[in-house]
Amino acid sequence: MSYRALVIGATGLVGKAVVEALLNEPNCSQIITLARRELELESDKLIQHKVDFETLENDADKFSADVMFCCLGTTKSRAGSIAAQRRVDLDYQLMAAKLANKMGAKHLLLVSSSGADAKSSNDYLKMKGELEVALEGLHFERLTIVQPSLLLGKRDHFRFAETLGAWILPMVCKLSFLKRYRPIRGEQVAKRLVKLAREQASGVYRYRLDEVFPVAEKNEFK
Questions:
Q1: Which of 97, 165, 183, 214 is the most buried (most CB within 10 A)?
Q2: Short-list 143, 151, 136, CA closest to 190
Q3: Is it the case that residue 174 has pLDDT exceeding 80?
Q4: In this structure, are residues 108 and 146 in contact, taking their beta carbons and an 8 Å threshold?
Q5: What whole-number percentage of the chain has pLDDT above 70?
Q6: Number of Cβ atoms within 10 Å of the Cβ of 98
Q7: Residue bearing the bigger pLDDT, 161 or 123
Q8: What Cα–Cα distance (Å) separates residue 33 from each residue in 42, 57, 94, 122, 176?
Q9: Over 70: is that where the pLDDT of 56 sits?
Q10: What mean pLDDT is predicted for residues 51-75?
Q11: What are phi and psi of 89, to 5 degrees?
């Protein structure tokens, strides 16, 4: 079934890979990106819009799509504070989801985080959990939440903590009960999100890393 896709966070690690995967997805007839800058990609089915996330309501007409991919995110260090990070990771994405919902989007796919919990004492995991709960309240026909751990890949900026984690976590996560926290490439997550966008069943579907990438498929995207 053909669909129009909307991507926010399209200039980030996962978002850009989602756009690239959608360009090769025969079921996707059009890709709309909303970001502060454009990607260096060109295609007849790619439409790029520069927007100010502080005034998204002014661009409500650009949210017309069938499927929405939420890949927006930042870090506390880049944002400057937890409050500023919440603005990006929670507020912006929730507002975008509300606008897409009003414009008729049926399926929303969210890149969340392993351990996301609205009741967590960890600020990051709490905001991720709160976003999940808020999105459930919007009652999309289908809500797909993917909870990866550390995302690996080439970024346009250096993240020390992630670089360190990329060395340490693969060794620690050899323990079976920690496999859900193993690092994974952003490209892998993006390709699976595009596959999940094909699903038609209604409801809320939440996937932990070890569920969306079972052992039998661990080499699928190598």
A1: 97
A2: 151
A3: no
A4: no
A5: 80
A6: 17
A7: 123
A8: 12, 16, 16, 31, 38
A9: yes
A10: 96
A11: -70, -30
How many angstroms separate the CA atoms of 8 and 34, rounded?
5
Q: Taking a C-beta distance cutoff of 8 angstroms, is the pair 40, 23 a contact?
A: no
User: Residue 15 carries which side chain, given as an amino acid letter?
Assistant: G
Q: Are 6 and 100 in contact (CB under 8 A)?
A: yes
| DSSP notation for the chain | --EEEEEESTTSHHHHHHHHHHHT-TTEEEEEEEESS--S---TTEEEEE--GGGGGGGGGGG--SEEEE-----HHHHSSHHHHHIIIIIIHHHHHHHHHHTT--EEEEE--TT--TT-SSHHHHHHHHHHHHHHTT--SEEEEEE-SSEES--SS--HHHHHHHHHHHHHTTSGGGGGGS-EEHHHHHHHHHHHTT----EEEEEEHHHHS-GGGTTTT-
Our measurement of the distance from residue 221's CA atom to the centroid of its chain's CA atoms, rounded to an integer in Å, reads: 18
CA distances from 92 to 4, 73, 83, 88 (A): 21, 9, 12, 5
d(CA 91, CA 27): 30
CB 131 within 8 A of CB 97: no
- N- to C-terminal Cα distance for the chain? 28
Place of tokens 């990771």: 89
**Band of residue 87 on the pLDDT scale cut at 50, 70, 90:** very high
Residue 115, sorted as left (phi over 0), alpha (psi -120 to 50) or beta, turns out to be left
Polymer length in residues for the chain: 222
d(C-alpha 126, C-alpha 137), whole Å = 17
